[in-house]
Amino acid sequence: MHKYILRRLLMLIPVMLGVSFIVFTMMYITPGDPARIMLGESAPTEEVEKFREELGLNDPFFFQYGRFVKNLVIHQDIGRSYTSKRPVTIEILSRFPNTLKLATLGIVVAVVLGIPTGIISATKQYSIFDNAAMVAALLGVSMPNFWQGLMLILLFSVHLGWLPSSGFSSYKEMILPALTLGTSSAAIITRMTRSSMLEVIRQDYIRTARAKGQTESVVINRHALKNALIPIVTVIGLQFGYLLGGAVLTESIFGISGVGRLMVESINARNFPVVQGGVLFIALTFSIVNLMVDILYSFLDPRIKSQYK
Amino acid sequence: MTINQKLLEIKNLTIHYITDEGTVHAVENMSIEIGKGETLGLVGETGAGKTTTALGIMQLVPNPPGKIIGGEIIYEGENLLGKSPAELRKIRGNNISMIFQDPMTSLNPVMTVGEQVAEVIKLHQKVSAAVAMIKAQDMLETVGIPEERHKEYPHQFSGGMRQRVVIAIALACNPNLLIADEPTTALDVTIQAQVLNLMKSLKEEFQTSMIMITHDLGIVAEICDKVAIMYAGNVVEYTDKVALFTNPKHPYTIGLFNSIPNIEDDVEKLKPIQGLMPDPTNLPSGCPFHPRCPKAINVCSKKLPKPIEIAKDHFVSCILYSDR
Amino acid sequence: MADVKIVKKKRSQWMEVWRRLKQNKAAMIGLFIIGVLVFTAIFADFIAPEGYDDQDLYRRFIPPGSKHILGTDHLGRDILSRIIYGSRISLQVGFIAVGIAAVIGGTLGAVAGYYGKRLDNMIMRLMDILLAIPSILLAISIVAALGANLVNVMIAVGIASIPSYARIVRASVLTIKDQEFIEAARAIGADDFRIIIKHIIPNAMAPIIVQATLGVASAILSAAGLSFIGLGIQPPNPEWGAMLSAGRYYIRDHWHIATFPGLAIMITIFGLNLFGDGLRDALDPRLKN
């Protein structure tokens, strides 16, 4: 097991190198001269040229990428923000807790809504509840979350005045963003839970459990759910990644100062190092979450555990 | 037949599966009984309604699409069909238990085998979890699984060993009636004999009555006292083992015997039953066997024959014997 | 001879799929929505009461009513007309982005699955790298690099969804490639290219079609999301996400500006999802619960 985790952690290195290469290349080909941006529109051309030389922007592409990776690995340094002049790592780390909190709350909303709904839908297949839940889930998947956020603001802030429309420090302020971000994942998890449970309920071992005289609730919640959870957990892990990405939109609707909003601002300001850092950071978080999901599998499924040895 | 006390009596049991494609008459008007300590063989081809009968007794027919249309299942004087779910749960696994056909899929893959045996013990006996686990280990030992393996998961066992676990679960609460649904079909031939011998000795040890569902007349000869032959949901012949083997009466039963290779008889060719099992949603009129029956006459397609007692306790549902 | 037979069988297989699909009410509702949308997009010039950029500052913020069914926006443009023209952009983005993703992803997946070994390893590791970046973030970075316009949004959204097609196609190629009819084709001397094009791709079609239908939906969503944060289709083009984004600043006093474009997106995605789900069930009845 430890060996497996170690191997997976080692496998993260090439993946992150690949991500850094993609991100670096994209920022490299992005139009706009960083030196010019940093010095401002009015700076004389010679001065900009001198500054380019200083920054190493005239070096060949791979030379620049090599330097980028070297700084990343040795100094955990991914450059300085063009606008604030602070190290990118600090810029991102100061905003990251909000993004992580938002994505976590979103996934909590999704799991708390999705799994029970999916279970009830599966056990009462084709009932009114099931049909209503499935239509709701499909609507949930179909709703753009930025629109849903606006509609929630319209209803709960503008009309009812119950909840604030921006901010992210009190629990009251977190409700709408978490709902906005979590809805589509809740819908996906509902659908996954339902189909996975339906698959499991048909299995022979469920009949065995009933033949033992076991109560229906234990049959469903222990025998069936534990087996059905394996694909559900995969989906939850993937959804967490989407939520980290989707936070970009949610943060900008609710004015939350997180990594997503920082990135959008940085793109508009051509503040490349921050964009690079943001993508790298979120990709790393996502990869670690996926690794944790894989480790969680082995606790759910003894068959997988024996493969890891 | 001896003056056995009746343990289970099935009267006119009818079970249908109602689907979009039509109604499947899985079990039609079935009547059989099992005395204490007795073993009844339920024989027939795939789709004849054997498993549905078993699930009917357990009240585990998947609903929808399955529905018990009518009849009675009387266990120790009480009709199971009138019982509440809670009452039924007390009977399942405790008084009546079942061994399923496929050991590869009958065990929960995410629970240890010990847990799965202990579960049934804990459900029906007032013991602590720890005691249930110890009893489960004893039970596993009884079916030939070393007790130290109780912490292992189903995927770590072979098919034969898994079937032993299933048997341990079924026998853990010392049931009065054990329903075994083709318990050896999914196993290798060599393992089949082992499992069958194990069941036979356990049955004697625990004094359990048994319904043995099979399509193998060899198993019937080995283990059963009485036999009911089923065809397309109907019991066509019902008698004790000796009468069946020495004096089979129904053309279908005779056909079954003719389909078995026999080393002693020097027959050139086997005589399989002509034709195929009918479409269960669209059974032939009259006797369902008549299109395949070598002795069919005109009436067969018009009237469903009733069981006739041609000798003591030897029932045959065939028009051939009705106009004696 | 044999070829003719296979073709015939194929056709009846698709007829069977269509028959099953027709029985699925939800899928038919989805198909109807998609049909209406395609019709609207094609005949937008005839259906829309006004042009998509007919500004008139004297009639700003008119609420929905008889003259302007869905009201007017902050520049006095008829919202209904803009939504009708917007269907063109959304459908284009959806289909072209999926086209890019399916062709590139499908080819990569087919090559990886068919040739296996090192090539497979290389391609799939590359996909792992792309998958490590949440797709909307990847699309944002690509648009940021290439510049925000319609074509680049299509490319960005397309590239971001390449890995899912590569995985699906690879998986079906892996199951198909060892089957006997491929052996047979190889035995009669068909080369790799022919085997992939003639035999493997058609047999891997079902999962691709399902993924593509659902993919159009998510591509439209992603594109709208990009436009919402100003990295997509630029004004005055009537992209739904961009309209929503412009309307958000007036949400307190003029709710209709942001509401209707979002509703249009939702109905479109809903229709595509209904149809995609139905198609999946029809193509593989075993999966249906």
Automatic annotation (TrEMBL), chain A:
| Keyword RNA-binding among UniProt keywords | no
InterPro entries linked to this entry: BPD_transp_1_N, MetI-like, MetI-like_sf, Opp2B
Presence of keyword DNA-binding: no
* Boundaries of every ABC transmembrane type-1 domain copy: 96-297
- Any one Gene Ontology cellular component term annotated for this protein: plasma membrane
According to Swiss-Prot or TrEMBL, what is its membrane topology? Multi-pass membrane protein
Specify one Pfam family: BPD_transp_1_N
Which GO-annotated molecular functions does the record name?
nickel cation transmembrane transporter activity
Q: Where in the cell is it found?
A: Cell membrane
The record's listing under Gene3D superfamilies reads: MetI-like (1.10.3720.10)
What UniProt keywords apply to this chain's record, in alphabetical order? Cell membrane, Ion transport, Membrane, Nickel, Nickel transport, Transmembrane, Transmembrane helix, Transport
Q: Quote the subunit structure annotation.
A: The complex is composed of two ATP-binding proteins (NikD and NikE), two transmembrane proteins (NikB and NikC) and a solute-binding protein (NikA).
> Which PANTHER family does its entry note?
DIPEPTIDE TRANSPORT SYSTEM PERMEASE PROTEIN DPPB-RELATED (PTHR43163:SF6)
* Record-stated family: Belongs to the binding-protein-dependent transport system permease family. OppBC subfamily.
- In Swiss-Prot or TrEMBL terms, this protein is called Nickel import system permease protein NikB
From TrEMBL, chain B:
Is Endoplasmic reticulum included in the keywords of this UniProt record? no
Q: Which family, according to UniProt?
A: Belongs to the ABC transporter superfamily.
- What Gene Ontology cellular-component terms does the record carry? plasma membrane
Task: List where the protein spans the membrane.
Answer: none
How does the UniProt record describe the way this protein sits in the membrane? Peripheral membrane protein
Entry superkingdom: Bacteria
Q: What is this protein called?
A: Peptide/nickel transport system ATP-binding protein
Keywords assigned by UniProt, alphabetized = ATP-binding, Cell membrane, Membrane, Nucleotide-binding, Transport
Statement: the UniProt record of this protein carries the keyword RNA-binding:
no
Q: What is the lineage of its organism?
A: Bacteria, Bacillati, Bacillota, Clostridia, Peptostreptococcales
Species this chain originates from: Natronincola peptidivorans
Which InterPro entries does the UniProt entry name for this protein?
A: AAA+_ATPase, ABC_Ni/Peptide_Import, ABC_transporter-like_ATP-bd, ABC_transporter-like_CS, Oligopep_ABC_C, P-loop_NTPase
Automatic annotation (TrEMBL), chain C:
Q: How does the record say this protein sits in the membrane?
A: Multi-pass membrane protein
Which GO cellular component term is one of those annotated? plasma membrane
> Could you give a single Gene Ontology term from the biological process aspect?
transmembrane transport
Locations listed in the record: Cell membrane
Q: Mind telling me which InterPro entries this protein's record contains? A: BP-dependent_transpt_permease, MetI-like, MetI-like_sf, OppC_N
Main subcellular location: membrane
What keywords does the record list, in alphabetical order? Cell membrane, Membrane, Transmembrane, Transmembrane helix, Transport
Q: Where is the ABC transmembrane type-1 domain?
A: 87-276
Write down the Pfam families for this protein, in alphabetical order.
BPD_transp_1, OppC_N
Regions that span the bilayer? 26-48, 89-114, 126-144, 150-169, 208-234, 254-276
Q: Which protein family is named in the record?
A: Belongs to the binding-protein-dependent transport system permease family.
Descriptive protein name: Peptide/nickel transport system permease protein
Organism per entry: Natronincola peptidivorans
Its taxonomic placement starts with: Bacteria, Bacillati, Bacillota, Clostridia, Peptostreptococcales
